[in-house]
Write a structure and sequence with these properties.
The structure holds 2 protein chains of 2 kinds. Chain A is α+β, with helices and mostly antiparallel strands. Chain A contains 8 helices and 13 strands. Chain B is an all-alpha fold. Chain B has one domain. In chain B, α2 packs antiparallel against α4, α8 runs parallel beside α14 and α20 runs antiparallel to α21. The chains are: A alpha+beta, B mainly alpha.
Chain lengths: 254, 758
């Protein structure tokens, strides 16, 4: 039976499993007994490309059918500094799972940095390895470069984040309409954006220090980014109209 | 058989044509039924889900019948015997000249009893057949949605139309048959017909309302909020009860409710028409309303048949197809009314009253739509307030609920004013007749309205069947869009139901004044003491007391129904939690016992019927016997005013909260799972029993109280001649008071113990 390797982002862990992504997502969100609920975001990882990084004996010994013949759901292989260890070329598709176990599959798309506009402000939710929510003047590629720059005293070897909607606040933090933004502290967000806009040389500002483990999928702006200072993988998030065709169940669940 | 002094050949033919149209409406319903039943029921899995819904629906209907039948029997006997207290009217003596007084009593007593049974039976048939048809249709709509939007829409709407045509056909048939047999004496028996329909509507509305919201609130609280399951998840033990509840509340309850408004408006119009006929000698006062009803049925048949979706409709725009049918019916009706007025009545007053009624229906539709539809400011505003929590969302909903009430009552007041202006300078009876004709006009398109309403639960259930049988994406999209349209049509028809209830009640109120005066004349009251001369004087303390108590009755009624829903929902929560603990149910390896939740809701719904019916039936007798007939008039005014305000407020707020939640679920403010959504779910849960249980239950309650007052008034007058004292009335009043207090205590205590299978 096939073995799958997943990099869970929330929480960070490398997990082997005998179940395919859609079932794995449902398992992560609702548990074996289906009594649990909670979002899950994970990548499928190419086992062949990281075989040298993991204990394959342990994997082969543990990731086997259970006594009743059912497939093994999860074997945790690593839970710390996993993202930074796995090479970007081993990342396959990204899977977003709603808290009731509906899974959306996103493929990596070519990311054209030349199309990034520099004027607007951005809101990013960092997902791994650290999880603050930040507002920034930087475009996604610039942010990635900035935060993974090893010449800086504080840097991350690799980072995954998602860009969130700001609507009119992106260009007009003070008086722009935040009508449809569901963030709990819009006032604070406006303050942060206003500081960024007016303070020369300040590129980032923390909006929330903690991520509560639940992303409102309707607030995603462009998509998910993962990379280091050299490379960037971009997982474009479909528009709601596209989502209606791609995965109607997911759309109904969010 | 048909005897009406002075009737022209045209008038005799016209009456028979009306009867033929009523029968044709029923035949049309039968044809549609055959068309719907001929459609396929889909896969085995779909049929298994449908089987569970069907079983639950049948269990509810059987149990309801068992509760209601003894009461029907009891009231039949009472109505038969009532004629022995108050002698038949002068018109009866004219209609059945040559019969002895004893024979007349037998004829009227028997007629009243049979009319009551007929009214009750027809109301029951509309509710029960309509609901069975809705259950038959849902699986077929789900199956058709795998093929095309147009086919699914056609089946859903035509199945709804069956209920609509039953309402139309049976309502018209009953009134016309009574008129053909009794002629000018028909008011004596029409009251029985109206009372039968109204009492049954009260049972179906109250029972349906409690059932549907106990299941819905219970299923949502434990399934969606607590366990995080999606809507219509097969692991939720209350899911089938919830689906059955949609039919019980929105199909059976609503159809019976509109049916009785339909009945009651014709009853009050004919009562007033007979008074005017006696005064003026013009038969058109009686024939015109029947013709209007016949035209309404005819135009509804055409309009409803035109409703069909386009095969290439990618937008799935069901509402525009439904609206097209509605407006076609409206235009046909108005043209035909005009022709009849021009060629037969030769008078535009009645025509204008009917047109005002149609306009009233459309304006009430628009007001309801504005305050409860997600496309307009109020619902958007309520949804916006969800961002600051459930408290502000609820406050906004309350604010808009209060406001919609004001506009609706202003529109109804303008309508009554219009009737006054149309009959300016003529007698009070003319004006009241104008108001009654407005009610007739308003309910002209009952076939379309009920079809639109019944379409809602059919589409909702089809979506549930689709969810539970895991149909593909394209089918789900079609069912989602039909379901969304159904939610809109249900909300719109609620506005019409409440508005028509008030207009019908005002017309009955008019009949009360004229009927009481007629009996007072018979009893030898001096002219100055007759109600038509004195009016209902609110400045008289007894009358004011009656007014105050009347104003309080709808609140008592609402309190008891909402408490009942809360109790039953709590039992559902416990039951679903219990079943979640059974190994295998959550894991989907074992099916829940859906029947348990169905039983809980069924029992909860039925046990409240008797106390609430007792309150509605006995409260006017209590007031009338202890405070007098004029105070009873004040009591009725209080019931109508307070009942209308409360009913519109509850359905307006509840509908707005519901759609605010849907707006957020469609993507506003973060969609499902956001803080805004949590707040909106709270608002919707609060609003559910308001808009679907307590609010709608007030419509038939208002009319039951009015009809009982009409029936009881002559009896009361017989014992309340000025200067006399009746110990019997005092004892009756005290007895009624005791029974009402007992009914309240019984209801508050939770009624019978839960009797469900362990």
């Amino acid at each position: 039976m096939a073995k799958y390797l997943y990099l869970s982002i929330t929480p960070e862990a490398l997990i082997a499993s005998m179940i395919p992504p859609a079932e794995f997502g449902a398992y992560m969100a609702t548990g074996t007994k289906k009594r649990n609920r909670g979002q899950a975001i994970f990548f499928e990882v190419d086992l062949d490309k990281i075989r040298h990084l993991i204990n394959t004996d342990y994997l082969d010994r543990r990731c086997v059918r259970q006594a009743d013949g059912s497939p093994k759901h999860s074997v945790y292989l690593s839970v710390y500094r996993v993202l930074e260890t796995i090479p970007l070329n081993a990342f396959k598709n990204l899977y977003l799972t709603t808290d009731n176990g509906i899974v959306l599959e996103l493929s990596a798309a070519a990311y054209d940095t030349s199309k990034e506009t520099g004027k607007a402000l951005h809101l990013y939710q960092e997902l791994c390895p650290v999880t603050p929510q930040i507002a920034s003047k930087l475009t996604p590629s610039q942010l990635l470069k900035e935060l993974t720059d090893s010449t800086k005293p504080i840097y991350l070897p690799k980072l995954m984040f998602v860009e969130l909607r700001l609507d009119e606040l992106a260009t007009n933090p003070l008086t722009g309409s935040g009508e449809h933004l569901p963030y709990t502290s819009i006032g604070h967000l406006r303050d942060c954006l206003e500081i960024l806009k007016n303070e020369e040389g300040k590129a980032m500002k923390t909006v929330q220090r903690f991520y509560h483990g639940s992303l409102l999928f309707r607030t995603i702006q462009s998509g998910f980014y993962v990379g280091d200072k050299e490379n960037i993988l971009f997982y474009r998030y479909p528009t709601m109209t596209e989502l209606e065709d791609i995965n109607y169940e997911f759309l109904r669940a969010i | 058989m048909f005897s009406l002094p002075g009737a022209s050949t045209f008038e005799v033919i016209a009456i028979w044509c009306v009867l033929a149209i009523a029968l044709f409406g029923l035949v049309y319903a039968l044809i549609l039924r055959r068309q719907v039943i001929a459609c396929d029921k889909g896969t085995d899995k779909m049929q298994a889900v449908w089987g569970a819904i069907s079983e639950g629906a049948n269990a509810y209907l059987r149990r309801q019948l068992r509760t209601i039948v003894p009461l029907i029997f009891l009231f039949t006997v009472i109505l038969f015997l009532s004629v022995y207290i108050v002698p038949p009217t002068e018109e009866t003596k004219v209609r059945f000249s040559g019969y002895s007084d004893e024979s007349l009593k037998l004829i009227i007593g028997f007629g009243r009893a049979v009319a009551f049974i007929m009214g009750a039976l027809f109301s029951l048939m509309v509710g029960q057949f309509g609901m069975r048809m809705a259950v038959q249709a849902n699986v077929r709509v789900a199956s058709a949605s795998r093929r095309s939007f147009a086919e699914a829409l056609k089946i859903a709407y035509r199945a709804g139309t069956i209920t609509g045509m039953l309402t139309d056909g049976l309502g018209l048939l009953g009134g016309t048959i009574i008129f053909i047999f009794f002629g000018v004496a028909s008011p004596d028996t029409l009251l029985g017909f109206g009372f039968g329909g109204t009492l049954l509507a009260l049972f179906m509305r109250v029972g349906g309302g409690i059932y549907t919201k106990a299941a819905d609130v219970g299923a949502d609280l434990v399934g969606k909020v607590e366990a995080g399951l999606p809507e219509d998840d097969e692991r939720n033990a209350a899911v089938v009860a919830d689906l059955v509840g949609d039919n019980v509340g929105d199909c059976a309850g609503m159809a019976a409710d509109i049916f009785e408004s339909y009945e009651v408006t014709i009853v009050s119009t004919l009562i007033l028409g007979v008074v005017l006929y006696i005064t003026t000698g013009e038969l058109s006062w009686i024939i015109f309303p029947l013709l209007v009803r016949g035209i309404g049925v005819f135009s509804s048949i055409i309009g409803t048949y035109l409703v069909r979706g386009r095969k290439d409709d990618k937008e799935h725009n069901a509402l525009s197809a439904i609206n097209k049918g509605f407006y076609t019916s409206a235009v046909i009706s108005i043209i035909l009314f005009g022709l009849i007025s021009f060629f037969y009545v030769h008078d535009w007053h009645s025509f204008l009253s009917v047109v005002v009624g149609i306009i009233l229906a459309i304006v009430l539709d628009e007001i309801t739509k504005y305050f409860t539809d997600g496309h307009y400011t109020p619902v958007k505003d309520i949804a916006r307030n969800s961002r600051t929590g459930s408290a502000t969302l609820i406050l906004k909903g309350l604010g808009y609920g209060f406001e919609v009430t004001v506009w609706q009552i202003v529109v109804i007041a303008i309508t009554i004013l219009a009737a006054l202006l149309i009959y300016w300078g003529q007698s009070v009876v003319h004006v009241l007749y104008g108001v009654a004709m407005t009610g007739i006009g308003m309910l002209t398109l009952t076939g379309n309205n009920v079809a639109m309403d019944a379409f809602g639960p059919i589409a909702d259930n089809a979506n549930g069947v689709g969810e539970l049988s895991h149909l593909d994406k394209d089918a789900r999209k079609i069912m989602d869009s039909l379901d969304a349209t159904g939610n809109t049509t249900k909300a719109i028809t609620k506005g019409v139901a409440i508005g028509s209830a008030v207009i019908a009640a005002v017309a009955l109120f008019g009949s009360f004044v004229t009927d009481v005066s007629k009996v007072q004349v018979q009893m030898g009251f001096e002219k100055a003491q007759q109600l038509i001369e004195t009016g209902i004087r609110i400045s008289v303390p007894m009358v004011f007391i009656g007014f105050l108590i009347g104003g309080a009755v709808p609140w008592l009624f609402s309190s008891l129904t909402i408490n009942s829903v809360t109790r039953a929902a709590a039992m559902i929560v416990e039951e679903v939690r219990r079943q979640f603990r059974i190994p295998g149910i959550i894991e989907r390896t074992k099916k829940p016992d859906y029947q348990q939740a169905v039983d809980i809701c069924t029992i909860a719904a039925q046990k409240e019927l008797i106390p609430l019916a007792l309150i509605a039936v006995l409260s006017p007798i209590l007031i009338g016997s202890l405070l007098g007939v004029e105070a009873l008039g004040g009591f009725l005014a209080g019931v109508i005013l307070s009942g209308q305000l409360l009913a519109v407020f509850m359905s307006g707020s509840g509908g707005a909260w519901d759609n605010a939640k849907k707006t957020i679920e469609d993507g506003m403010y973060g969609g499902k799972g956001s803080e805004a959504h949590h707040a909106a779910v709270v608002g919707d849960t609060v609003g559910d029993p308001l808009k679907d249980t307590a609010g709608p239950a007030l419509n038939p309650m208002i009319k039951v109280i009015n009809l009982v007052s009409l029936l009881a008034a002559p009896v009361l007058i017989a014992y309340q001649k000025p200067g006399t004292f009746s110990a019997g009335l005092i004892i009756t009043g005290i007895l009624c008071l005791g029974i009402i207090v007992g009914a309240i205590l019984f209801s508050k205590r939770g009624g019978f113990k839960k009797k469900v299978r362990d």
